[in-house]
Amino acid sequence: MLLSGYGCAGYNAIKYGLAIMELEAGDSGFRSAVSVQGSLAMFPIWKFGSEEQKEEWLPRMASGEAIGCFGLTEPDFGSNPAGMRTSARRDDDDWVLSGTKMWITNGSLADVAVVWARAEDDIRGFLVPKGTPGFTARDVERKLSLRASVTSELAFDECRLPADAVLPGVTGLRGPLSCLDEARYGICWGAMGAARACFEAALEYSMTRVQFGKPIAAFQLTQEKLANMLVELNKGVLLAYHLGRMKDEGRLRSPQVSLGKLNNVRQALWIAREARTVLGANGITLEYPVIRHMNNLESVLTYEGTNEVHTLILGQALTGISAFD
Asked: Could you confirm whether 304 is annotated as catalytic?
């Protein structure tokens, strides 16, 4: 929705955010699939790809004919992508990839993987089509979070790619980190969709659940929970809306996206947990959406930068001192 040309919709950031919020009100897995397709797979091709790469992939990905995934995180390197071990070496005109990526949304479904690897000069991005010899994807099983989303491990065993598989427009971590900022912006909206679904479930339940001769909504402690949830929900939506206006005006900076991701996911998870207490024991069943959203938000709290990482990004923006080094 946010990209223009090549069959893309070219909508503004506010319209995209509203759509993402509605998707995650259904399930975080839906929003994750959209975020990966648009922000993590299509965006780097659109931003850093050659014209041939754009023409080959973007129209089919925009229509949903082709699915993409984003390979950055590794089994031993999540918050520190600079430590990645996946390597890319030149062999005549070809590139040869070796390594493993982990926790990759849409991994086994994808027709093309955008993979970041350490080359001799710097970190480079590569387009790896499904079926390329040496490239395999295996799904992560037994998840209790994001169960509606396919999560995979990608393995590259001397995976040979032609010279034109590399994204020519970027080197270094600037490439993948700019993609993450795009996805994190969507999370600012999406988390509020999950929070809203939990709040609405709690409000409706409180009006119909009778204890001590009256609905539990009549008790002051329940009303306090509902009021506090409403306050945090509206604050989060307004923050996402403000960030969207800044993005449309071209003045949204990375630390501001971190602020939105940090606050909105943290508060969405708090709302989900508070809503669960309103539902009591019924809150742990799948008859209501609350426990499903709560479990999903535990993953959202971790991916696209953990709570701790975004805290330190804000700390560096405030002080000028990096706590990562």
From this structure: yes
Within 10 A of 220 (CB to CB), how many other CB atoms are there?
7
Q: Which one of 56, 182, 232, 304 is the catalytic residue?
A: 304
Which of 70, 106, 291, 265 is CA-nearest to residue 186? 265
Nearest 10 degrees: Cα torsion 144, 39, 1, 21? 40
Distances 270 to 68, 91, 169 between C-alpha atoms, Å: 32, 51, 41
Start-to-end C-alpha separation, the chain: 36
- In terms of pTM, does the model score above 0.85? yes
Residues 6 or more apart whose CB falls under 8 angstroms from that of 118 comprise: 84, 85, 86, 87, 88
Q: Cβ(289)–Cβ(197) under 8 Å?
A: yes
CB 151 within 8 A of CB 228: no
CA torsion through residues 265, 268, 272, 278, sign: positive
Q: Kindly report, residue by residue over 251-262, the tens digit of the pLDDT.
A: 999 999 999 999
